[in-house]
């Protein structure tokens, strides 16, 4: 009898305070990523939109990553125009911009693919396709900073790209642990 009352009270409190259940869902989901605090900071503004939907969480995580990737590209472009850098640094920066542009494209395609996912015979194909695109974006992010060996490029610029890489890693983990798992069980 006591357990039934407790269960009823919990259900009632969740109905009265849906934001709390959304917060718990996001908190638990972000705790499964490599960078939980970063995950929570970037996704908490969308908590009412996400609710407790693994699909919306995965879409929002990838959208936040794509937005940050595009912002990173703009910041790198501005940096290249406003800072005096050597010819070698300029080449490394141009290579990085190309990689970040590729990453943005691949994240965009992964979101398009996510919209195509339905249960059925193509499910695994679509899921693997999304993982492939996101993995390619992560590889591009890693490759971006390979040429950043000069002191000026190793600090400020690497930090800008690193933040974007961390978000991409989190977005991938949210996709794999929440949405893919939920859909593979249905």
UniProtKB/TrEMBL annotation:
Task: Write down the InterPro entries for this protein, in alphabetical order.
Answer: Invertase/methylesterase_inhib (IPR035513), Pectinesterase_inhib_dom (IPR006501), PME_Inhibitor (IPR051955)
Q: What Gene3D superfamilies does the database record attribute to this sequence?
A: Invertase/pectin methylesterase inhibitor family protein (1.20.140.40)
Molecular function via GO: enzyme inhibitor activity
Keyword line: Signal
Q: Which Pfam families match?
A: PMEI
Q: Where is the signal peptide?
A: 1-21
Q: Where's the Pectinesterase inhibitor domain?
A: 21-174
**What name has this protein been given in UniProt?**
Pectinesterase inhibitor domain-containing protein
């Amino acid at each position: 009898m006591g357990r039934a009352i407790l269960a009823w009270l919990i259900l009632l409190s969740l109905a009265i305070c849906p934001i709390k259940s959304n917060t718990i869902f996001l908190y638990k989901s972000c705790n499964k990523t490599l960078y939980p605090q970063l995950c929570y900071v970037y996704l908490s503004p969308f908590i009412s939109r996400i609710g407790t939907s693994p699909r919306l969480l995965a879409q929002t995580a990838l959208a936040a990553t794509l937005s940050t990737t595009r912002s990173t590209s703009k910041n790198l472009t501005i940096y290249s125009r406003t800072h005096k850098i050597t010819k070698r640094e300029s080449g490394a920066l141009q290579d990085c911009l190309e990689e970040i542009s590729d990453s943005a494209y691949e994240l965009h395609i992964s979101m398009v693919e996510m919209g195509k996912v339905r249960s059925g015979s193509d499910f695994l194909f679509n899921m693997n396709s999304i993982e492939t695109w996101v993995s390619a974006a992560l590889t591009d992010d890693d490759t971006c900073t390979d040429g950043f060996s000069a002191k000026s490029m190793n600090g400020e610029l690497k930090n800008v790209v690193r933040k974007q890489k961390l978000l991409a890693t989190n977005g991938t983990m949210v996709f794999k642990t929440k949405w893919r798992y939920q859909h593979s069980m249905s």
